[in-house]
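re the bet — no i am not wrong, look at it urself. input seq straight from the record:
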Amino acid sequence: MATQAAPSSSSSFSSSSYSSSSCPQWKYHVFLSFCGVDTRKNFTDHLYTALKQKGIITFRDDEKLERRKYISPELLKAIEESKWCLTELAKTFECMKKTKLTVLPVFYHVDPSDVRNQSGTLAESFVKHEEDTRVNTEDVQVWKDALKDLAHISGWHLHDRHESIIIQKIIGRIFSELYHKLPCVSEDLVGMDSCVEEMLDSYIGEGLGGVRFVGICGMGGMGKTTLALEIYRRTFGNFEARSFIANIREETKNQGLVSLQKQLLSKILMESEINIWDVCEGINVIRNTLCTKNVFIILDDVDEDKQLEALVGKHNWFGPGSRIMVTSRDSHLLIRCGVDYIYTAKELNNDDALQLFSWRAFHKPHPEEDYVNLSKDFVNYAKGLPLALKVLGSLLFAKRMNEWKSVLDKLNEEPDRNILDILQISFDGLTNTQKGLFLDIACFFKGENKDCIRDILESFCYYPNYNIGVLKDKSLITIDD
């Protein structure tokens, strides 16, 4: 892949802007730059296809576009509308200075030292340009300076290396630049950024090696799915294939496990038609198909062992470096299914809770001055539960103060149905004995020493030695030290 300045060299460039001060309407994520037919139908084509498969919007100049010694208006327009540019050398570095672009060079069968020192065939090309009366000598110097800068940028040298592996590394780096380094502006992630970083550093990171099963547990409405989605958004480009399957609990009831197996394989293999007729066949297909693939799979809202057994089974179903993430309300389910690490989602502190509530109630990160005290009352009611903060904030948006007070009075008598329905799911999954135990604890024994009330609970045949643990595993109660 050659630059316009030096046709005999081979390099490609990628540029990214993630300036937080402005948000231009980018048309492309990636701009591919190459010269002639030397790589159009091999490396460039493979890279272009891989980028498209990953959902990265990529510009590649059409073969009908005439390539001249100077960039055509069509190419210039495409370059300036791109978020990522693999572009003509001089324009790339001009864009770098103006918009903080990141350049990623690929040296395709070219020695980077030749580019740095401008020796070998590169030197010969520059001599020809300097002798050409149609070429401005100042332009040649700009090209030389840009090439020297380019050679000092960390990139990829493809000499005697597998192209498919290099392409995967390029894709991973692009995703890292596009998503991981972008500042988070979603109000749904208030208070979660540190949790995301902790998960990435401790459980998900590429350098940790092996196949890892990671769980996120917590009560309903705690933000487990939001956390998993953000981790997925930041990292899925680092993997050969990926799949996010939401609402496993509901989908199992409505569609069955075979449908979920088809969905998993369809996303990973990018095939619309997957023929599986029963769960056992699906297990064999998943295990035999994915055992060499580096995959990232997220299973959201798992509530039965059979779901994990049918979809992700054991570590040896997947290739080295794979990551399987599971969200569930039941920590014991995660333990008995062999999950390596379990992260417990925590409620928001008061400051983060007030900010999340304000985003929904006022569409900004802090409440209106006259509503500060009332907002804090609602935050205290929600007890740091993200779902409750979002529901209540949305309910109160654009409402008058007397309506706010009325809603607060109503909540003290009757909880909001949208919140209650989410919490009800965990309760409905209990046996009758466990339901009775939970209600008695909630109504009469909250804050009591569990050892002091054990005899009372035993007298009601609640079997507290076992069932208190069940309630704790399902995130319905917490036990302080």
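see?? Residues 184-344 form a domain with the Rossmann fold fold (CATH 3.40.50.300). told u. also The radius of gyration is 28 Å. so pay up
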